[in-house]
Design a protein that fits this description.
eight-stranded mixed beta sheet; 16 strands; 255 residues; single chain
Length: 255
């Protein structure tokens, strides 16, 4: 199996990059590291070059997901494993700021995945204002064939299955968090939500005050979940993506 161990970054396309940058920096409390000539913004939660990429576009959607893999296996070897499974991938160098080499492939539902070993570790550190999350923690995606996608992430990318919510949601992890990925059975492919980890319950309540100060309503929570037992609240970013803020999530200990 491919040794994925961490959710590294997500890439959005947006018809209003300035509004998204304003939200992720002034509200969420991340830092704009750099912006290239076409307006693409690279935003960091702390020390890495980026955890959020926002590209100008006529529409708004999640474009790709970056998963970090252990150095126990080269990207060239990973590409051979994918090829043996009938999965096409492209190995590229310096295609994205901060990442020297990465593999690009599609999961069974057509989501673009990027596999990489490391990212430049020259981010600005934690911001001094805004919500200031600990990290980009997990994401949930809606898919048309949940069973096929769960098998792909479990058997090919090495994720562990940790929980289920009826026939709707499937929780998987690639590290010690209860889940780094939630696969939701749906009628189409879409981003259900993107989640950022907070320090503790007090940080959760403070974040609600910050959202209210910026006139951003909370659409659910704060309340404690069942799967993962994390305290979570949800709101919308400027492009109407659902953003979860959570803390106190269960830890996964393999048998």
């Amino acid at each position: 199996m491919i040794p994925v161990y961490r959710l590294g970054y997500v890439t959005f396309v947006s018809n209003d990059v300035p509004a998204m940058v304003n939200y992720y920096t002034n509200v969420l409390g991340c830092s704009l590291v750099e912006q290239d000539g076409d307006g693409t913004a690279y935003i960091s939660t702390s020390l890495e070059h980026h955890n959020i990429v926002i590209k100008p576009h006529s529409a708004n959607f999640l474009e790709g997901i970056g998963w970090q893999v252990k150095r126990t296996m080269s990207l060239a070897d990973i590409q051979q494993i994918l090829k043996a499974e009938g999965i096409q991938s492209t190995l590229s160098s310096d295609k994205q700021y901060g990442i020297a080499e990465q593999l690009e492939l599609l999961d069974p539902d057509g989501n673009t995945l990027f596999l990489y070993h490391e990212m430049d570790y020259n981010g600005p550190g934690f911001a001094a204002s805004g919500i200031v999350p600990n990290k980009l923690g997990h994401l949930a995606i809606g898919v048309q064939d949940a069973a096929k996608n769960v098998a792909f992430y479990n058997e090919i990318l090495g994720f562990h299955k940790t929980d289920r919510a009826f026939d709707l949601a499937n929780f998987l992890t690639c590290n010690e968090d209860h889940h780094t990925l939630n696969i939701i059975n749906g009628k189409k492919s879409y981003l259900h939500h993107l989640a950022f980890e907070l320090r503790n319950p007090a940080h959760q309540y403070d974040s609600s005050d910050i959202l209210a100060k910026h006139n951003i309503p909370t659409i659910w929570g704060p309340s404690r979940h069942t799967a993962g037992h994390n305290i979570a609240s949800y709101h919308l970013d400027p492009n109407q993506h659902v953003i979860e803020l959570y803390t106190d999530m269960d830890k996964y200990i393999p048998e």
